[in-house]
Each structure stands twice: as structure tokens, then as C-alpha cells.
Target: GNAT family N-acetyltransferase
Amino acid sequence: MKSKYFLRELKEKDAPFMLEWMHDEDVIHDLQNNFAKKTIEDCLLFIKKAKGNREDLHLAIVDMNDEYMGTTSLKHISDKTAEFAITIREKAMGTGCSRFAMKEIIELAFRELDLVEVYWCVSPKNQRAVRFYEKNEYERIPISEMIVTKAKCMQSYSEKQMDEYIWYHVVR
Model:
């Protein structure tokens, strides 16, 4: 069955839609970053920096009309690992968009980037995300078992977050 979604490079035309989800309290209320303070200029700069970035891969999730639905990312690519991230507009929630994008970017990580592990975490307060990962049978893992990953996460997460967050991974 052909998907009604695609991944592509981020484009400047995506910026207003990025800003839409960043200012949507229903989307951002349980996320780590303060997206509500972001501006259209921040979105445009993010898109510009995404081009040719070797440490982070940020792709737009788009529908068949090339309308931006969200962003999926592989961050901190090194040591055969990367951190997965995704966020989508409220309009795309419940449509299969997230499931498609997650599956595609993880396959890309293994097939094209030759990674061996993709990991991510979520605050236990973000019950929508926890339900999504559990429903899709992603494997929880204690961060203590991810030696390389834990060292990388120390750059982005506090000790408290590393202990409290729910960690997941997919291994090739």
C-alpha cells in the first residue's frame, strides 16, 4: 500500500507550519524545549542550518500535496547511534503520519547511515507520546544499559531527566 506521506528536505515554505505547532499549546505542553518563544526567523534559521548538517538530520513530513505536517529527526549522529525526535502539527495527529515518519527515518538510519542504534526518550508526563510508543511496541530500555548513548545524552539532558524520562531504542 502506498503511503499518503513522504519525507523530504525542509524548505523555507515549511516555516509558517513549523511555527504553528510551536505555538500550539496542545502540541508543546509536555515537550522539553520552550517552543512558544520561537519566531518565524527561528524556524527559517533552523531550516537553513538543517541543510548539509552531518550531525543532525531533520526532514519534513509532508502529505501528497507537499504540505508540511511535521519534522522527524536523527540528532547527535555519531558512534553508530543517533537520537530520534519527531513533532507533528495537531492537524496530522491520529492520521498515521507519525507512525509512517518514525518507521521511515529509522529504516533510513540503518540502511543509509549504517547506524546500529536509534534511541529517544520521553517525559512520563507526555502520555500521548508514551501511548504511541507503547502501542507501536517500541522497546523501553534503562539508560544505564546504553553506555555510548548515556554519555551523549549528558550533553542534552540533566541527570534528573535522564533518571525520570522513559527511554526507548531500536537496534539493527
Observations:
- The helical segments are 15-22, 25-28, 40-50, 97-111, 127-135, 147-153, 159-164.
